[in-house]
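Input set for joint prediction.
Command: fold jointly, output tokens.
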Amino acid sequence: MKQKYNIAVTGLNNTDNPGPGVPVIRGLREAKDFDVRIIGLAYENLEPGIYMDGICDKVYQIPYPSTGSDALMERIEYIHNIEKIDVLIPNFDAELFTFMKAEKVLKEMGISTFLPTIPQFEERHKAVLPEYGEKYGFDVPFSKTISSLNEIKKLSDKFEYPILVKGKFYDAYAAYNEDQVIGFYNKISAKWGVPIIIQEFIRGTEVNVIALGDGEGNIVGAVPMRKQYITDKGKAWGGITLDDKKLMEITKDLIAKTKWKGGMELEIIKTQDNKYYIIEINPRIPAWVYLAVGAGQNLPEALVKLALGEKVKPFTSYDIGKMFIRYSMDMIGDISQFERLSITGEL
Amino acid sequence: MKIKESIAISESGFMFDPSTGDSFSLNQTGKEILAFLKSGKSEEEIKEIMIEKYEIDNFTLEHNFYDFMEMLKTFNVLTAE
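tokens >
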């Protein structure tokens, strides 16, 4: 009989801008070496993963980290007292810092995580990517952070249009002139605050890698992918696994040099002359993780084992030419489910 | 010019480049040319075979052949020898 773990997962927002929660859970449900009871943690009461069949065994609403980490941790403790959580997998960039800071407290409660360290998390921020590139020897686009509209006028001294205007956590737009930069600045800052990152626009093909580092410089698994169909939010609606040795070398090198701990996603632009520019490093498993599972690397399963201190044999291969295609579907729910979650915070 | 080693072409004429994720549909003639390139035939040899097989004049063949080769280069299917 297989061991059964209670695993708490956030990011159940399987919308057109999906969180990684549902695909992470699908991977865990297919784990070879253990069974799972999934405790879904939801911020909003209409996150689709709450209502999907076969995804969560139990769902709890949790407060946004922005309301204060004390409230969030109190809620986690309450849930843990009922559910006896073995491993917690946070899937949002915006909540990671809170959970990383609480790693020790969580551990004392008996909840394991496998997250990057705070220095690892901080140094790969979009706002400091040029310093990161220089420190570790990777090609990155030139970028600059701005915190006021006045700074936009001076951008043409340092950048050639088009440029990318990015939020500190999410959102990126290509701007072809100053007016567009102002528009995007206002749009992004209203949602995510400042600073706004202005990044050199590198022409080429975007390729992505999902990877898992063991925290000691070793790569546990990695799968590269190219988006084949991109939504108007810039999210992959379809993608295919690639055979790109250089991309794998870069990933291996980055994990070795930074001793990255946990899941990550590298967003890279490959130029026509075969140069690779890292444009973003996301400090968590991406929403397309199920492609890696389908290609032979169950990275969520490996992450849980690492979190529990088990030895994990690194993956050495994956299937090339495996594709994922997302789809949308209307589920039928009942107001009583919504009512229960809204009133009791549990479903 | 040589065809990239990683390129896979199926019987149906579906061509897949696993290093970029690009895929293409070839017609019968395109499939034949790619098969000749893959077997190591030179451009001159391929042209000779095509002229003989399809009874096409040299001018029309060259026009279409080089147009196709340019397309292959643009899509990074070919590499320099």
